[in-house]
Every structure is written in structure tokens, then in C-alpha cells.
Amino acid sequence: MMKKIMSIILGILAVVTIAGFFFFRSLTHAETDLNKLDLKNLSGKQVVSAELLSKPLIINYWATWCAPCRQEFPEFQRVKEKLGDKINVVIISDESKSTIEKFKKNNTYTFDYLISDKKLNMKIRPVTVFYNRKGEAVKQLIGTTTEEEILKIVNSMK
Question: How many domains does the chain have?
């Protein structure tokens, strides 16, 4: 009898663990293959991934409704100011052009705003992905980050 109960409990735990893994992955998985992203700048020009890979690249997936996204933007701005043209910092949203333009008008951030024509496959934002010059995603962060953490990752990419 005890053996049967233990088998049932272990079976339930296994199912819950596997289901939890796939559920969490669906919440946090971002499409990180640059060639699969359909991106435009605010002028409407198509952006090709090769244009972004002339140097290490940081992409932050965000939304104007995401308070943690907006909260971490000063961190990205400081990184951009410290590293200058040694790195590309890009933020991507799947919101409308007018929504992004309104946000940009009300803020002084100097990174590139891009719009994804496809809905981003993520339920949690922000997601930050670091790419090497080959376009390979070398690190992905879920949630807010800091200037120190960004710089540490960028320095490890050299």
C-alpha cells in the first residue's frame, strides 16, 4: 500500500516538474535568432541583422506598459555612454509605431528603437539578449538588469 502511494506521489511530482519547465520556458523564451526577426526602425526602414553585428550587440525586448523595462533604461543609457561606438544597444518592441514614437519623444535615451512586425514570443519583459559579432546569442537575462551586470557580460564577450 505504502509503495503504491509513493509511486503515485512520485508520478505526480514528475508531471508537475515537467509541466512547470515547459510553462516557465513559454513565459520567458524570446525569439533570439536575429534572422527570424522582422524589424523596422521608426522611419519604417527594414533593418537587416548584419547591420547590427558590426560590433557586439545588446538587444532589450521591452514594452511601454512594462514598468521594469522603463526602470532599467537609464542603466542601458549609461552603458551606451560609457562604451560609445564599441557596442550596439537596441531596444525592440512589438507595439505600434505611434506608441513607440510618443515614448521616445518624452524621453532622452539615445539607443536605437526598433519595431518588430511580428508579435514577440514572450509573456515576461524585459528580456535582454547579448549577441557576439557572429549573431550568436551568448547570454540572455530575464527581468531587470544593472549597468554593472551589463558591463560584466559585455567585457566577457571580448
Answer: 1
